[in-house]
Amino acid sequence: MLSGWSDLQRGKCGRVAGGLAMIILLLVAGCTPQASYMRKWQPAERIANRWSGGTVRTDRLSEDEAAVFEELGTPDVIRLYRQVPTRERVYAWIYEESNRVIWFVEGQRADYVEVDKNTLPLSRASRQTLRQKAFAGGILVGTIGSLATGFILLGEDVGLKN
Question: Is 102 in contact with 109 (CB distance < 8 Å)?
Fold first, then answer.
């Protein structure tokens, strides 16, 4: 019999489920598009990954971000982009009244950066490759699972012994 089944019968299912829920929660918490220094920023209605009206936690700013914050204050708008082709996070601090945009790549100020408004961490080519590999892996797992199930159910009928 399956060894995992005996663990489930002994009441360990709750701990396993709790552990999986904790892992999923940590993964989701690490995937937030807002920077760690952003507090109470409200998302824009029709523009993805654009926030306004919040406060900045100065203790979480990099040296470059802190210098800009000292000079210009809290930005009116912060927007997330991805750098091409590395897919690193790029935050644009937008000061509407002075019509200035300050770019930060992973906390470092950049005068020029090529960005993509698609904020997914994977490029289109990477997503396509990942999708193809997941499909091929699914077929492989399904085939192996079917064979294993067949051997388990029909093992004695085809001459296999324990």
Answer: yes
Contact 119, 49 (CB under 8 A): yes
pLDDT at 162 over 70: no
Element (H, E) at 108: strand 108-110
Report the alpha-carbon angle 89-93-94, nearest 5: 135
- Across the strands, what pairs with 77? 52, 94
**What span, in angstroms and rounded, lies between the C-alpha atoms of 53 and 89?**
21
Q: Which two tokens stand for residue 47?
A: 């523009």
Cα–Cα nearest to 52, from 99, 89, 98, 96 = 96
Termini Cα distance of the chain: 11
pTM score over 0.85: no
Indicate if the pLDDT at residue 104 is higher than 90.
Answer: yes
Where b means 16+ CB within 10 Å and e means fewer, 16-32 reads: eeeeeeeeeeeeeeeee
Q: How many residues in the chain?
A: 162
